[in-house]
Design a protein that fits this description.
By secondary structure, the protein is mostly helical. It is 81% helix and 0% strand. The protein has two domains: 1-42, no CATH class; 56-257, MetI-like (MetI-like fold, Orthogonal Bundle). The longest helix has 45 residues, at 228-272. 26% of the residues are buried.
Length: 273
């Protein structure tokens, strides 16, 4: 019975998640203007994607925003996870509980709240990009926290105390003992933060400058218009993003697998020694 449910789940995942993306990828390599009849093979959509200045600027701006906000969110989320782990149990539980609220909160509420606070109350102009960047950092940091905390709980905490006993400063012990042990969690959190930033629509809608578009806001606006060439070029963009996600996930899994193998090899070597 369990095997049947496993196959049912696998089929549903393939049918409702991967099949639509596969269909979109197929159409991105044709000269079709609508999803329906497949016409001739063509790279026109990809040529339009990378040769249209408007699309190139939109993609570059979105990537810069995603990487920058993810970097800040990774630092904050990692610091929060480390602080919660080494705090008293009551304080640690309080931090974890507070971190859960933005995770389950609707993005539209987060985006509107940040807009009210920064733009209306504090009168920070959207043209400074500060509301947009802070909005994405607020969106991503709690997820980095969730990615890093399990790795901290798995590490050997006695090594940090041993480093302090040997005369290392808390900062040096943190950088040379704690951080190397949780690098896989930090990398996973950063990759997740980049993905969340790329995918965001509501926070960007409420906080972005009027003349700036992320991929999500651009796609929504483009699908409402009548520019067929731009619409079909977005099929190619979706395919490229999906391929990048696959490569990133495979790379992260390979990195973590090698890390576990190296760790086990080190333990075996230490045991033999």
């Amino acid at each position: 019975m369990k095997k049947i449910w496993k196959w049912v789940y696998l089929i549903l995942v393939l049918l409702f998640i991967y099949l639509p993306i596969l269909i979109l990828a197929v159409y991105s390599f044709t000269d079709s203007t609508n999803i329906g009849a497949i016409r001739h093979f063509s790279l026109h959509n990809y040529a339009t994607l990378f040769m249209t200045e408007e699309l190139r600027n939109m993609i570059a701006g979105t990537l810069l925003l995603a990487i920058g906000s993810a970097a800040v969110a990774t630092v904050l989320g990692t610091m929060g996870a480390i602080g919660a782990f080494y705090s008293r149990k009551r304080i640690g539980r309080l931090i974890s509980t507070m971190n859960q609220v933005p995770v389950v909160n609707a993005d539209v509420v987060t985006g509107f709240s940040i807009c009210i606070l920064l733009v209306v109350v504090m009168r920070i102009s959207k043209d400074t990009f500060i509301p947009l960047i802070l909005g994405h950092v607020t969106l991503c940091a709690p997820f980095v926290y969730l990615a890093v905390l399990p790795k901290i709980k798995q590490m050997d905490s006695s090594l940090y105390e041993a480093a302090l006993d040997l005369g290392a400063t808390p900062f040096r012990a943190l950088m040379q003992v704690v951080i190397p042990q949780i690098v896989p969690g930090i990398v996973s959190g950063f990759a997740l933060a980049v993905t969340l930033s790329l995918d965001d629509y509501f926070i960007a809608t409420y906080t972005k400058p009027a003349m700036f578009d992320t991929i999500s806001t651009y796609v929504v606006n483009a699908t409402k218009g009548s520019q067929t060439t731009i619409k079909t070029a977005l099929w190619a963009l979706s395919t490229v993003i999906f391929l990048l996600v696959i490569v990133t996930v495979l790379g992260m899994n390979l990195y973590q697998t090698r890390g576990r193998e190296n760790g086990m090899a080190g333990m075996e070597k230490g045991a033999k020694g």
